[in-house]
Design brief:
- The relative contact order is 0.07.
- Helix 1 packs antiparallel against helix 2 (about 45-70) and helix 2 (about 45-70) runs antiparallel to helix 4.
- The chain has helices at about 15-40, 45-70, 75, 80-105, 125-145, 150-170, 170-180, 190-210.
- The chain is mainly α.
- Helix content is about 75%, strand content about 0%.
Length: about 210
Amino acid sequence: MTENEPMAPARKPSFVWTSVIIIVTAFMTGAVSGYFDKMAEYGEASRTSGFAAQLVVIAIGLVVLGAYLSRFGRFWASWSRRKQLYAVSLSIAALLGFVTTLALRFGVGDGPSSDLFGNGQFDPQVAILVSALWIGGMALSLFIYHRNVDDHEKQAYLWGGLAGFYAVIFPAPVWWLLARAQMVPAVDGMILFLFAVVANAIVYMWLKYR
């Protein structure tokens, strides 16, 4: 290729194959979860072993996805460093959320309130591990994110954060007052947290992609 010849456009990964790898990994993770749940009912497996097996499946899926995407190195290299780091920060956040959900699911005890959003007792080691992952992973992801977002992204993020704030300060005191009057159940911090996350996501996505 001479200096005057234009560079050939970089090939892009197939959306179909990328989706297939992700969906198959998610399906296999769910299948492993169901298998170990059933084994645990008969006392032939522990929740910890099920959690470890799911992490292995996820790791294999990530290796396969990485191997596929590595064929399009020029596509990744065509991105600016800011865009690459932005993608890395989002990937860290997504992986953190997925691993946290798995860890909490297998770390909760048995009993009528043992579901993830119930009040069952967590294994102390799992609670410490997930707390450390949440603080450390979020801090790293946000540090990278805030150093590599453009003004449009920043505006969407700030307004999304404000919407999440409003989603807490409006219902929280009302819920607290009604609970004190024994008209509704006690205030649940995780439900308020979910209100904030959903409101944040809706406003952020609307402003970013409209």
